[in-house]
Write a structure and sequence with these properties.
The chain is an alpha+beta fold and 163 residues long. It has a single domain, classed as 2-Layer Sandwich (Alpha-D-Glucose-1,6-Bisphosphate, Chain A, domain 4), CATH 3.30.530.20. It is built from four helices and eight strands. The chain has an eight-stranded antiparallel β-sheet, covered by helices on one side. It starts with 9 loop residues before the first strand and ends with a helix.
Length: 163
């Protein structure tokens, strides 16, 4: 019996070296996927970078302007406060922290049980391009968004199948 094909997300060419994006098709309704993304307590499970250690503050469900704090580990342990800066129920959610770069998720319903999800890291709004370049963030984050989408797909589809 052949090995199953690994799940992969599609890395997108944004034509901008400061914007990294990937897309994946998930066999679950947009609402179910959005509910995962809008719950900061689930972010550690979804994180393809394994840098989120835990949540320290925030609401049960995110909304525009909501703030949520995370315990992180990337070489060193630190805490970061995020603010939701874009929000459209079941379609779009984005947040940023003090560095001002953004993580954005866009959901597009293909059918009642299929959703295309695009995750984008947008460094164009950063107040510290030097920091992102020194940390070699752009190549690393391209892989991170792709891995996060794979985790989101696995979790969303498993939970949707178990209904």
């Amino acid at each position: 019996m052949p090995e199953p094909t690994p799940i992969r997300s599609e890395i997108l060419d944004t034509q901008n070296p400061m914007i990294k994006s990937a897309r994946i098709l998930i066999n679950a309704p947009a609402k179910r996927i959005f509910d995962l993304l809008a719950n900061p307590r689930r972010h550690r499970e979804l994180d393809g970078t394994h840098t989120i250690v835990g949540i320290i503050s925030g609401p049960e469900r995110l909304s525009l302007g909501a703030k949520f704090g995370m315990k992180m580990h990337l070489g060193i342990r630190y805490r970061i406060m995020n603010t939701v800066v874009e929000f459209e129920e079941n379609k779009l959610i984005a947040w940023r922290h003090l560095g001002r770069w953004r993580w954005r998720y866009e959901l597009r319903s293909i059918s009642p049980t299929q959703t295309e999800v695009t995750e984008t890291f947008d460094g164009t709004t950063s107040i510290s391009q030097l920091w992102l370049k020194v940390r070699k963030a752009y190549p690393w984050v391209q892989i991170a968004v792709a891995k996060t989408l794979v985790r989101l797909k696995e979790i969303a589809e498993k939970e949707f199948r178990s209904l």
